[in-house]
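Review form for a predicted model. The reviewer records the input and the model, then writes brief findings.
Reviewer: anonymous (R2)
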Amino acid sequence: MIPLVLVHGFMGGSAQWGAQIDALSSEHKVIAVDLPGFGENADLPVKNTIAGFAHWVIAELRRLGVKRYNLLGHSMGGMIVQEMMRHDGGNIEKLILYGTGAIGVLPGRFETIAHSKARAVQDGARKTARRISATWFLEKEQARGFEACAAIAQRASPEAIAAGLDAMEAWTGKAYLSQITAKTIVISGDTDRTYSWDQTSLLWTSIPNANLAVVPNCSHAVHSENPELLNTILLDFLRR
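Model under review:
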């Protein structure tokens, strides 16, 4: 059984994937990582480059004895898994790019990276976590999954928040999209405030063999906003 590796995004963590682990574990071994500085690994030294995160995940998989695997990345995690394709692509069977893009400056984002950096310094880690988490949901703070998402985000330290924003701002994978050889699906909520349609379309049209799934009435946290539909899409893609 080829495992499915889940890589969360900025201020995320492995705890966000409960609904996916429950639904997919009967058919797939699921490995949900916590990136250094976030989630269960909030105490680890932070990384400030997408490549640094990618190499850390690859090393962690080798430590676990995993060589060949399917790979899902969400948000900043989607950037990380694109970078993993460059360095470990021969071991990746299928690729899932969810709520993400290939341009780290995030054109069309609800606010610029520079503004997020300034607000994080001004507001502190906890307030920043809650403020940004709200933008990930169509119904913002009123969404059913907001409090759980915010609780995970609040584990990130000020250093991890700054490092993650630096990592995204400095990265682009646009030039390498045509080199992705794994069978790929691009998944997006139809009202994502973080990654614009231009980012989603760029992935879909530039990666050979890429499929597209747009989930209605969802923003950036489809895994929480409509987990049943996301799980159906994932299972269908992995079964093919």
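Findings: The beta strands are 4-7, 30-32, 69-74, 92-98, 183-189, 210-215.
Further findings: The chain is about 45% helix and 15% strand.
Recommendation: see findings above.
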